[in-house]
Amino acid sequence: MSMHPMVLLVGAGPGDPGLLTVAGRDALTSCSTVIYDALANPELLRLAPPKAELIYVGKQANRHTLTQDEINQLLVSKWQQQRALADAKSVWGNVVRLKGGDPYVFGRGGEEGQYLAAYEVPFRVIPGITSGIAGPAYAGIPVTHRDFTSSVTLITGHQQDANAAAGLNFEALAKLNGTLVFYMGVKTLPTLAANLIAAGMDAQMPAAIIHRATLPNQKTYRSDLQQLCDDDFCDQIAPPAITIIGRVAGLSAELNWFEQRPLFGKTVLVTRTRQQAGELSRRLLELGAEVIEAPTIELAPPSDPTAVIEAIGRMPQVDMAIFTSVNGVHAVWDNLLQTGRDARSLPRRVVAVGPSTAAALRQMGIIADLMPEEFTSDKIAQTIQTHLGDVAGWRIMLLRAEIARPALRTGLEQARAVVEDVAMYQTRPPAVLASEAVAALSENRIDLITFTSASTARNLFQLLSPPLREKVCGIPKLSIGPVTTQALGSLGWNLHLTEATEHDIPGMLAALEK
Ligand code: SAH
């Protein structure tokens, strides 16, 4: 970090949030302000500190669009604010100007840099991966290849101005015999293509147009120069799109790893808790799906926090603790640490229900004595008896969510254990369902819905209007285990339902592969 605030012109990459540079990520995680465009993936904004000011300056329907001059002025004034804070020895941060792709490739980043220089605002450039290189790569097209081309030319064909094409030297472009990459509007493509043919380029020259390159809903239109002349063909393609003309554009089949991933083209609605690590979402994304997350549960502190603190104080005296969820593990640890204690305050025997819970304990340095395979509560008591001996007379602490499955407690009590039930946290449905999820359901865009607990099912039901509940009936559903399946059934959602054999997230993914 420098001693004074600066403006950082940061390339956001082409769309896939993973294609941000490490320097770009560092800039975002420590900034005070982000001024961003439509093409910068909004997911990257989550990297900024919660207190950072996020200012959108891109084009959007119904909103005033800032002119380039207004953006330039905004950069300077936001920097001045930070400068004033620094002068007052107050907390300050850099101003990030986040631009799609690379800031200096058709992004007017050069003009912004010049303006900043004129106002003596210190700035840095953090390059990004440009869409004209990454887009083709994600569509199976290397922009150069020793056998086909030795040059690549980045060209802009302006959207607003069909005459902009007139400024290009088509004879020179045709003679290059290399790869041509066109940024901007598809509207000008027919003119561009006709000009290239007139300048002597082969009308059969392969071409590819990549819409929303590197994003889960990327779509590639393969064609040739002749077809690009057709207005009807080009009109069907929405922005943003990158056009590649050249022999490499014909290569894609064997190199098209991105579009050949198993779930490419599928949209999955993942019902989840807000705090839950997005492991399922991440894995689905890797498999190529477009993931829409619908938080259906919010974690909240337990209704009786004092009871929890007291219970945790008694933990060293009990014979066994049973953790039933990852959230429960985290809640206990937060409580221990807040009161200056650590894992040594746990009882001698620790049981984790399910592999994810066991993994959460392992992260805390605790290997569970037993990890019951079966998620079904009534079998857990049995399993414990089989492996850890007769529990008669044992004091067992059940560290769980406020909504409990009584079967576990009953099973242990039948075995004459003394069970203390501690509600570590409560879960509740959020006020509304994420608008993106509502839109996707309404437009019939969802191919699969995943449920990782009974409450995700019940809460989704609560959050949906009757017509949308009806739609869910017809959509394939994936359940983590029998308890969730049962909940789905009682909601009338038992059609098109698959249940994971292993009741955890890897198990769900395995079920999906089948
Ligand atoms: N600085 C950006 C380009 C800005 S110009 C970069 O380096 O990528 C805007 C044009 O970039 C769009 O009209 C489109 O042609 C292209 N573009 C940017 N992101 C894109 C994406 N994800 N998919 C397809 N084209 C994209």
Give short descriptive properties of this protein.
single chain; 514 residues; alpha/beta; Cobalt-precorrin-4 Transmethylase, domain 1; Methyltransferase, Cobalt-precorrin-4 Transmethylase, Domain 2; Rossmann fold; five-stranded parallel β-sheet; 20 helices; 20% strand; globular; binds S-adenosyl-L-homocysteine
Structural write-up:
It is a single chain. The chain has 514 residues and is α/β, with parallel strands linked by helices. It folds into 4 domains: 7-129, 3-Layer(aba) Sandwich (Cobalt-precorrin-4 Transmethylase, domain 1), CATH 3.40.1010.10; 133-259, 2-Layer Sandwich (Methyltransferase, Cobalt-precorrin-4 Transmethylase, Domain 2), CATH 3.30.950.10; 267-297 and 430-513, Rossmann fold, CATH 3.40.50.10090; 305-422, 3-Layer(aba) Sandwich (Rossmann fold). It has helices spanning 22-29, 68-87, 109-118, 131-138, 170-176, 189-198, 225-228, 231-235, 252-255, 279-286, 305-314, 326-338, 355-363, 377-388, 406-414, 435-442, 454-463, 466-474, 482-490, 505-513; strands at residues 7-11, 33-36, 53-56, 95-99, 123-126, 152-156, 179-183, 206-211, 219-224, 241-245, 267-273, 290-300, 320-323, 349-352, 395-401, 418-428, 448-451, 477-479, 497-499. The strands form 3 sheets. Strands 14-13-15-16-12-11-17-18-19 form a 9-stranded mixed beta sheet, with helices on both faces. It has a 5-stranded parallel beta sheet with strand order 3-2-4-1-5, with helices on both faces. Helix 5 crosses helix 6, helix 12 packs parallel to helix 13 (355-363) and helix 14 runs parallel beside helix 15 (406-414). The mean pLDDT is 91. The structure holds S-adenosyl-L-homocysteine. S-adenosyl-L-homocysteine is lined by residues 14-15, 39, 99-102, 105-107, 130-131, 135, 183-184, 210, 212-215, 239-242.
